[in-house]
Design a protein that fits this description.
The structure holds two protein chains of two kinds. By secondary structure, chain A is mainly alpha-helical. In chain A, 75% of the residues lie in helices and 0% in strands. Classes of the chains: A mainly alpha, B alpha/beta. The interface between A and B is medium-sized, with 25 and 31 residues.
Chain lengths: 292, 334
């Protein structure tokens, strides 16, 4: 009895080790994961980490250049410490990226799964609605929705989520349409499986790879989207720090202080890159045929 | 002997854009305990539709009439929940395509275990133990280590064994085998048929074998139902039907089987084909469905579809000119 339990435990441990090895064999995936962990930690503990009060103005020290004592990344047009603002602004960007994607993924995947599996009028409705939403470019849709809802971070996240839903629906539905005709779905029906197990077990499991890829594209997309909305004054409102508001503030001073735009831009680029590299690695790990 | 599975006057009609299509017309047959009944016919003759009707898995645009009962329990009127309990536990099914009938994302152990956890309420560990027994039963080498493997790591023959293990996991009363050997090479075919034979003997499973391979039928079946264009046209014990086929279509089918033994005796070198195609039925036939391709067709065949009539102790044929002594038959034996 105890022996059986022991072997089963080691079996699971072995499987976990194999998955870990498959992931760690890909250096880009590991670098991506490290990047994400760093960004998430900074987002969580930002206020504790920032060397200065991000909103403290100092008119005696505006546009201090980077690498000056006390201001590693310099100061902005109001003399606020850029590093502190960047660190504190991480939370808003990460929140927007992850939350908007999560909301869009849950709603989009559910719609796509049921529309694709049940077909019929539900599918027609969902597919046409998706077509309508996708006929607007992502940015136009997000900006339009955000301006209807009014400027705030919450509304920016909702606007981004809604703009992301149609792509999630389309990716899921396309996969489901192919998977529902698979012989193993038929075999599951024949062996008495419930609809719930077929949809959430057999079908969803086989959609995961494209969905993970889609999510890792959507997270940096909505980080950029959130930055864009705050840049346009539709997201996080000044003086609250966010990467987008910082970019927006920097545009008037590009001639005098280009680095002012460089740092938030680099933060956005690095976060985007981390998620993309991690997503590629994860997609490989999730494919059972990758283990050869 | 009370039959285990009794199908009575089963008709299936599909509502298509081109109008109704009669896929199965008043099919009746029984499968007794430990009996192997073969459903034989060309592609599109309604074999698979019949089996899906038994499991109630036809699309909604199919209207099914008639009665299907399992051990006296009527399946056609069961609730959706109740029929789901029957599927996989009392009646299960294996398919033609072992390569695609397993989910590529789950391990073998999980997929066999899923059926056991669902129908037998087993724990993960119990299900694993039972899965090993089942894999041994289908003669899977190194059963225990297979549990953790994924379908792509197995060959076609091994996957079909896994499918059979899943199908018999709950010791079903009836196993529907839809062309179980068609996609496999000949040596594996023989092994799979052996496994089915063992199941019948050891587990007591009745088998409804759907096939177009008369070699397989001769090998394993007890009784044969020949289908043509949705109609049952001949029915009887395998030995009687093979030695004394009554319907010209059965005669034709048997003539289309390669027979090296006859060739050696100086028989006809050429395989005999049946000219023409299986018709699609738009409604109840007004003439014999086989008449356009039949060598025995006469005026009466254009007037009505003949019903099944007794031609031997247990043999029935639906033909106006039933009988083995025909020019076609003579041609084969010549």
């Amino acid at each position: 009895m105890t022996v059986a339990v022991a072997t089963e435990l080691t079996e699971r441990a072995q499987q976990r080790r194999r998955l870990r090895r498959r992931f760690t064999r890909r250096p880009t995936a590991v670098i991506g994961l490290v990047g994400i962990v760093v960004f998430v930690l900074v987002a969580l503990f930002g206020p504790l980490l920032s060397p200065d009060d991000p909103n403290a103005t100092n008119y005696n020290a505006i546009f201090v250049s980077p690498f000056s004592p006390g201001h590693l990344l310099g100061t902005d047009d109001l003399g606020r410490d850029v590093l502190s603002r960047l660190i504190v602004g991480t939370r808003a960007s990460m929140e927007a990226g992850v939350l908007a994607t999560l909301i869009a993924a849950v709603i989009g995947v559910l719609c796509g799964l049921f529309a694709g599996y049940y077909r019929g009028w539900l599918d027609t409705l969902v597919a046409r609605a998706t077509d309508v939403l996708l006929s607007f470019p992502f940015a136009v849709l997000a900006v339009g929705l955000a301006s209807i809802l009014g400027p705030s971070l919450t509304n920016a996240i909702i606007a981004l989520a809604v703009s992301l839903i149609p792509t999630f629906i389309r990716v899921t539905r396309a996969e489901v349409l192919g998977l529902r005709e698979q012989d193993y779905v038929q075999a599951a029906l024949v062996s008495g499986a419930t609809t719930r197990f077929i949809v959430f077990g057999h079908i969803l499991r086989n959609c995961l790879t494209p969905l993970v890829v889609q999510a890792t594209v959507a997270i940096p997309g909505s980080i950029i989207g959130a930055a864009m909305l705050s840049f346009l004054g539709l997201g996080e409102q000044p003086p609250t720090a966010s990467w987008g508001t910082m970019l927006s503030e920097s545009q008037n001073y590009l001639g005098q202080a280009a680095w002012f735009a460089l740092f938030p831009g680099a933060a956005i680029a690095l976060a985007t890159l981390s998620f993309n590299m991690f997503g590629d690695g994860l997609a490989d790990v999730l494919d059972p045929k990758g283990d050869q | 002997m009370t039959p285990r599975l009794q199908v009575d006057e089963l008709s299936v009609e599909f509502d298509t854009d081109e109008g109704p299509v009669l896929a199965v017309d008043r099919m009746s047959f029984t499968v007794g305990p430990r009996e192997v009944v073969a459903l034989v016919g060309e592609s599109g003759c309604g074999k698979s539709v019949t089996s899906m009707a038994i499991l109630r898995l036809l699309p909604r645009r199919a209207s099914v009439t008639g009665s299907i009962s399992l051990d006296g329990r009527e399946l056609t009127s069961l609730s959706e929940t109740a029929i789901r309990e029957v599927r996989g536990r009392d009646v299960s099914m294996i398919f033609q395509e072992p390569m695609t009938s397993l989910n590529p994302s789950f391990t073998i152990g999980f997929q066999i275990g899923e059926v056991l956890r669902r129908h037998e309420g087993m724990s993960r560990k119990q299900a694993n133990e039972r899965a090993v027994e089942l894999l041994d039963l289908v003669r899977m080498p190194a059963a225990r280590t297979r549990l953790r493997e994924y379908p792509h790591q197995l060959s076609g023959g091994m996957r079909q064994r896994v499918m059979i293990a899943m199908a018999v996991a709950c010791s079903p009363q009836v196993l529907i085998a839809d062309e179980p050997t068609t996609a496999l090479d000949v040596t594996i075919q023989a092994q799979i048929l052996d496994i089915l034979r063992d199941l019948r003997a050891d587990v007591g499973t009745s088998i409804l074998l759907i096939t177009h391979d008369l070699g397989v039928v001769a090998d394993i079946a007890d009784r044969v139902e020949i289908m043509y264009a949705g109609h049952q046209i001949e029915s009887g014990p395998v030995d009687d039907l093979f030695s004394r086929p009554q319907h010209p279509y059965t005669v034709g089918l048997l003539g289309a089987v390669p027979r090296p033994d006859l060739l050696a005796e100086g028989g006809s070198r050429r395989l005999r084909e049946i000219p023409g195609l299986v018709p699609v039925l738009r409604g109840l036939p007004e003439s014999c469905v086989f008449a356009p391709r039949c060598t025995r067709a006469t005026a009466v065949c254009g007037e009505s579809m003949p019903p099944l009539a007794r031609t031997g102790p247990e043999q029935y044929a639906a033909c106006h000119h039933a009988g083995e002594d025909s020019p076609v038959r003579k041609g084969i034996q010549a």
